[in-house]
Design brief:
It is a single chain. The protein has 321 residues and is α/β, with parallel strands linked by helices. It folds into two domains: 227 residues, Malonyl-Coenzyme A Acyl Carrier Protein, domain 2, CATH 3.40.366; 78 residues, 2-Layer Sandwich (Alpha-Beta Plaits), CATH 3.30.70. The protein is built from 14 helices and ten strands. The strands form two sheets. It has a six-stranded mixed sheet, sandwiched between helices. Strands 4-5-3-6 form a four-stranded antiparallel sheet. Strand 7 and strand 8 form a beta hairpin. It starts with a strand and ends in a 6-residue tail after the last helix.
């Protein structure tokens, strides 16, 4: 077997009932949720297990609940002797879960940062995002540039013309983000280029320049935290390159909120370094789905409930304890 990477999901992977089985079976999961509930000052565990779905979908709740579920799954994975990864990475929010796994942040520090991040992103200026399928990145970037130029020519202010490619998830699964009118115009151009455009149910222009003010405030919050050097290489969203040093990790995380998520390049980098096994730790199977589209030969696992947790560890040849 080659090298192993553990991946941690971001916003959009939530579902009512997530992690309830881990909570019922593993003391590690119960302790993790008790800690997070106390730190957050509200029952995030109840939101995970019972919903309601409308509340779970709110950014201010989605981000800390996904963090909680991912960290509970990670603690259970560790308790059963899951193999240590060579690399860790997380998609957007998931990067903070990855930093806990790599011992850069404590659970307490991660919860406080995500609580702040979630409130900032919920309160950000109005924006829009759309998934775009079947259009190469360079063509979609031109669609965005053309939409921006046309809006500017028609008298729009800079902030009204913002639209960029915000998520490079796979080679042909991308997301655009920006001002609602600009996202619509860029989407029309993407359709004309042969793509499929799917508006996403979000109210903000995440990972775009419209997040600049929130990013500055989040950066101030990050500066209050004492980051540690990583135990495993962390491949970060900002540049899809590995980081170990605390200062480098902190600097890149501080720029993540207003910068594109370079997920495809992140996976391609790890593949180039000999990773052939990817384990998604947390709710859903979105990330292993992206890996499958990038390299169909990769071995893919998901750890979200007791059954697939035990099956993953057994298949990877590690004894259950």
């Amino acid at each position: 077997m080659g090298k192993i990477a553990c991946l941690f999901p971001g916003q959009g992977s939530q579902s009512v009932g997530m992690s309830a089985e881990l909570f019922n079976e593993f003391e590690e999961a119960r302790q993790l949720f008790q800690t997070v509930d106390k730190l957050a000052g509200r029952s995030l565990s109840r939101l995970c297990f019972e919903g309601p779905e409308d509340e779970l979908k709110r950014t201010v709740n989605t981000q800390p609940t996904i963090l909680s579920v991912s960290l509970a799954a990670w603690k259970c994975y560790q308790s059963l002797g899951g193999p240590q990864p060579d690399f860790v990475a997380g998609h957007s929010l998931g990067e903070i879960s990855a930093l806990v796994a790599a011992n850069v942040l404590t659970v307490d520090e991660a919860v406080r940062l995500v609580e702040k991040r979630a409130h900032l992103m919920e309160e950000c200026p109005k924006g829009a995002m759309s998934a775009v399928l079947g259009v190469p990145a360079d063509i979609l970037e031109k669609c965005c540039a053309d939409a921006h130029a046309e809006l500017k020519e028609s008298g729009a202010k800079d902030i009204e013309a913002v639209v960029i490619v915000a998520n490079f998830n796979t080679r042909d699964q991308l997301v655009i983000s920006g001002n609602p009118a600009a996202v619509v115009k860029a989407g029309e151009k993407a359709k004309a280029a042969g793509g499929k455009v799917i508006p996403l149910p979000v109210g903000g222009a995440f990972h775009s320049p419209l997040m600049a003010a929130a990013s500055i405030e989040f950066g101030s919050e990050i500066e209050k935290v004492q980051f540690k050097d990583a135990t495993y290489s962390v491949v970060q969203n900002f540049d899809a390159k590995p980081s170990i040093s605390a200062s480098e990790i902190k600097e890149k995380l501080g720029r993540q909120m207003e910068s594109p998520v370079r997920w495809c390049a992140t996976i391609e980098y790890m593949l180039s370094q000999g990773v052939d096994t990817f384990i998604e730790i947390g709710p859903g199977k979105v990330l292993v789905g992206t890996v499958k589209k990038i390299d169909r030969s990769a071995k893919l696992f998901n750890v979200s409930e007791p059954g697939n947790l035990k099956a993953t560890i057994e298949e990877l040849g590690h004894a259950l304890v």
